[in-house]
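Before the break, one more example. Copy the sequence into your notebook; we will annotate it together after we see the structure.
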Amino acid sequence: MAKDAQRRAADKWDAKHPENKAHRRAKSEAKRFILNRASEDELQQVERWVKERRAERQTTPTEKQ
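Here is what the structure looks like once it is written out:
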């Protein structure tokens, strides 16, 4: 019974916060890809993207997290 109520509450919260749900899903998918599927070349590409993103963040105002 409690699990059903918790699931309904989580679904209701997700419905009210779609941007948060999309963010969590994208983060989870990226982590799964990096940890389980990425080849060495793909890992190197991800590292380049991270470096580029960090450089961008240093030159632009801090965004809300």
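The chain has a mean pLDDT of 93. Residues 18-37 form the longest helix (20 residues). Try to locate both features in your own notes.
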